[in-house]
Amino acid sequence: MSAATPRRDYSLVGPAAKSAQDHGLASAQWYACPVPRKQLKELMRRKDGPALRDTAIWALGLAVSGALAYRFWGSWVCVPFFALYGVLYGSASDSRWHECGHGTAFKTRWMNDVVYHVACFMIMREPTVWRWSHTRHHTDTIIVGRDPEIITPRPPDIVSLLLNIFNLKNAYAFFSKLWLHASGRLNAEEETFIPQMERDRVYLVARIYVALFALVAIACLVSRSILPAMFVGLPTLYGGWLAVYFGATQHLGLAEDVLDHRLNSRTILMNPFFRFMYWNMNYHVEHHMFPMVPYHALPALHEAVKADCPAPYPSTLAAYREILPALARQLRDPTHFVQRELPPASRSVPVGATAVV
Amino acid sequence: MSDIWIDAGAADDIDAEDVMRFDHAGKTYALYRTDDDRYFATDGLCTHEQIHLADGLVMGTIIECPKHNGRFDFTTGGAKGAPVCVNLATFPLKIEGGRLKLRVA
Hints:
The structure holds two protein chains of two kinds.
Chain A lengths: L14 H8 L14 H8 L4 H23 L6 H13 L1 H10 L7 H15 L3 H13 L18 H6 L4 H15 L5 H6 L5 H25 L3 H5 L3 H4 L2 H7 L13 H4 L7 H7 L5 H6 L8 H8 L10 H17 L25
Helix pairs in contact in A: 3-4, 5-6, 9-11
Chain B lengths: L4 E6 L7 E7 L2 E7 L5 E5 L13 E3 L2 E3 L6 E3 L4 E2 L10 E2 L1 E4 L2 E5 L2
Antiparallel strand pairs in B: 1-11, 2-3, 3-4, 4-9, 5-6, 6-7, 7-8, 10-11
């Protein structure tokens, strides 16, 4: 890292937050690819069918793999079943949390809410906190000092990234904040994006979560076995790697402080199994540009806007062939980022691309 | 509120169960048509993050903000839950000779 390059401040309550506001990057107008109103309305149209089908498959997968893991507990045969159960619990819950949080997965509101709360518990994300955190992430995507969901700063925190392959640092942060919230407090950053009227709900849910995790701990103590935690709690750790594998591709290594999702997000072509697990969040540019389009309509949205977007990555591995060298270079040069190439005739809003580095 | 009604375009400019943006005198409005041909008007911007509601989705009498899933009942302006906490202002809208007439403050 060059001695002349100061380390940026990524907190939401430091100088970068003020700088973002001063540069017009907070709550700004973002570029959107032109999509005719009638077509966009059709794409935004809600359905229950796809999410009911996918949730049924997900629940069945959890039930069958969980039952077989239980059946073979005590022998090595249980390992592949726990591996599958863990990925369905600790990774597939990430996209379910996400889509239902947007309120778009199902047409029926309460179905979104039920799956949202179940998935939040599975992925260890407090529902009210993360609803507001993610709201901010969509308002100010990868705007330093504003976005609470930037995975790693520049230069990258490699140790944290590695620890989070198994959600170790995330889980530590989750339980630390859970305790804080259960005691009726928020941290300074959370106070910037969680409105006053929502805070009692944060405290209540935190207390419920503490009680649920205490029940799991008691069940382990009473049964003198780790088995209860293998089904509730630990899967977030041992099964969370696939969500990390997907999630790290969304924005890592791309531009900060730009008002164009085509420059700070990736769309990756994935196989049907990955797209089921990830609920089509591989179409991430499209999702950020039109967040009210349900996951099942994202492939059609991709077709509608792809001529106005950078070429999608042909595979997740192709994305990592870009991400890993970019992170390595950012260790030495934190100003480095991958500059996405827009189609020649495309109109962009490059505000901030060079204004704040 | 004034008694002046502003011409806001043809009633048929809005599809059934849809919304249209209308700007006047430096303010922006959202004009709605339900699927049974009732018309309503509200402030044009979401009370949460100042996003144009005319880019959102109408479902029954609910307008959903295109950015964060904030929902309002556009017949009353009532906010329907997080992330919107503040109600929308509503404005009288009528049809005269096939034209939308909006009464603004």
